[in-house]
Amino acid sequence: MQAQAEANAFAYVRSDLTPAYDNTTYDTQEQGGKVEQVQREYLYLLDEDRVVIHDKVVATNPAYTQKWLLHTPSRPDIAGLVPLRGSDAAGILQSHASRFSIHHERGRLDVATMLPRRSLRRLAGGKGYAYYVETDADESTLDGRNFADGAEEKPWFNLGRWRVEIQSATPAPTQHFLIALSPSLGEDRSGEVRPLEAISGELPGLATERSVILFAADSATDHFSFVLPSTQRRILFIGGPPGRDLTVASETARDTRRISGTGVLELPMPAGVEPGSRIDLTF
């Protein structure tokens, strides 16, 4: 674990997950490892009841496909699914929809993919596909195996009968995954998360109904400008350089704050800004 922070409105954890995978230091297949780095940032917004996850994955080979996985007990509702193998009820399906939802008993989870910007979703599950793995890592031909030997369904097991795989439509050795998870008791929260329109600079970020959230860990830039989407009233600047000043400015106001030792800063939106205003950050 590299950093953690808690406040009245949010909880944040940043961790290095590289040792959980075949990497350049520990490689079970003696092929140079699959990843150079896997970094996860986990932000829980207590006052919004929302989880935002930012993952940075650096592969050792540009040909490797990085995936963000979500295992679910019920079949997710994803628009535009096209079967690639099997059927709609049981098989492997694909969609380019960036948002989907999962319903299970009384609960609902709305999932929004902000990064990769051009991404696709593969859905695997149903009879004969719940444990499907592409054993040769070549997905151009879906000829894998369902590893169901020894699997048992018991009421006390947390079963993942379906699996969503989010991956970029544009292969690259470094991929950023930015996913927002909004739970509810049946309420449709699919429209509460939206992407940011960047003017200059590049930071993984998104907007919720209340917040603009930016992830600055390992950023090569020291500035970022964006268009305020709506009436968000705060900025959460995550993973910034500890101890450095961050200045946020608009046409009507300017404010400078010190980034904490954990790299987290919560600050109010400049006074008097309207939706569509330009916001500039320098750090």
Would you write up a description of this structure?
A hairpin with a 4-residue loop joins strand 7 and strand 8. The relative contact order is 0.15. The strands form 5 sheets. An 8-stranded antiparallel beta sheet has the order 1-2-3-4-15-10-9-6, with no helix packed on it. A 5-stranded antiparallel beta sheet has the order 5-14-11-8-7, with no helix packed on it. The protein is globular, with a radius of gyration of 20 Å. The protein has strands spanning 3-6, 10-16, 35-45, 50-59, 67-72, 77-78, 82-86, 91-95, 99-104, 107-115, 119-125, 132-133, 145-146, 162-168, 174-184, 194-195, 197-200, 205-207, 211-215, 223-227, 234-238, 245-249, 254-258, 264-268, 278-282. The protein is an all-beta fold. The mean pLDDT is 92. The chain has a domain at 65-108 and 116-166 and 184-190. The protein is built from no helices and 25 strands.
Secondary structure: elements and pairs:
Elements: E1 3-6, E2 10-16, E3 35-45, E4 50-59, E5 67-72, E6 77-78, E7 82-86, E8 91-95, E9 99-104, E10 107-115, E11 119-125, E12 132-133, E13 145-146, E14 162-168, E15 174-184, E16 194-195, E17 197-200, E18 205-207, E19 211-215, E20 223-227, E21 234-238, E22 245-249, E23 254-258, E24 264-268, E25 278-282
